[in-house]
Structures are given as structure tokens and as C-alpha cells.
Amino acid sequence: ISKDEVGILICDVMGHGVKASLVTMLIRGLLLEIPTALSSPADVLKHLNDKIIPLADDANFPRFVTAVYSVFNLSKGEILIANAGHPEPLWYVRDEQGNHFEGCPVREMGPALGMFPDEPFKATRHSLDQMTELLFFTDGLIEQKQCDGQEWGVDNLVETVERVKDEPLSEQLKLVTEALHTACESDHLDDDVCLVAIRVQPNK
Prior knowledge:
By secondary structure, the protein is α+β, with helices and mostly antiparallel strands. It has 5 helices and 8 strands. A hairpin with a 2-residue loop joins strand 4 (90-95) and strand 5.
């Protein structure tokens, strides 16, 4: 967004195949329409929702899109995050319980994009006063069925990330994916899986 701001949008379109891919391309184009608003996660999600709502009347259009948009501002030392029905990212925190991964909270989670017109989305502000790592993912990761028929789930994801947290980010993503394939004993996954990791250090 600027020399001090990084924005990350991860979304999951209902359905698969060409139609879902076209919606992803549409969302990318819609972001280019609002370069001056990219610092505001709430405004970005509202813009996407307002544009998707009319298209959702088409029966051939994949109706729902979950999304989470985060802006990391290094000069201000803050993270803004807004969520539209998407799994909350994990973040690495340091508190009285020690260093660990847990869900990154939002003040209020909005509905998936394309559900309700004129929906107001809200952003949550977190201080960025130390090295911070976040892991964004789509629900195909945690809803993947294991051999026993149970979903892999957030608990297994947290346990895996905790185990590999000292590795470089690219290696972390590789090891998480390998753990998922091992749990389901298959190279084939039932749903699309997307993982994005970011590690930031605030400017001093």
C-alpha cells in the first residue's frame, strides 16, 4: 500500500472450478478501484460486498465469499483486521501463558461477502510493538477429513504450527501441508487449501 503499509487479503469463494476462479479475478479487479481506501480493512470489505451483492442475484454466480483483510502499519506500530465470515488467522502472542499461537481476535465478525446489502464491517486494531507472526488460511485446511472421518481442525493446526514455529516461514508452510497430508493419508484434498504467513517487526 505504501512504504510503511502492507495489506493482505485472503478469501474463499463458494464452489470450485472456473466460476470460482472468475470471482477471484473479479475481487482482484475491485481492489484496484479503491487504491486510496486500501488502508482501511472495513472500507475494503464494504466495497467488495457492495459490488458482489448485485452479481449474487445471478443463479450461476457463486454467491458467497468469505474474506479477511489485514493492514500492517509499521510506522504507526499497529495491525488493522476485518473479517467477513472467514476462519480467524492464528497469531503468535507473548502473554502470561508464554509464547504460543492462538486465534487473532476481531471486535466483530461480519457475514460473508454477498449475503447482506449495506452491511457495515468493522476493523479491530492490535498493537504491533514486537515481532509478530500471523498465519492466514482457508477452511479447506481445517475441515479436511482425516482417516477416521474427523476434521483435522484448528487444534491440530495450532499443535503443528507450535512444533515448527522456529523454522523459516516457507518451511513452516511446507511442514503444515505435509502434516495435513499425513493425517489424511492421501495426496488428494477434498477442498482448496490456501496458506499465507507473515512475520513483521515494527519500525523503532
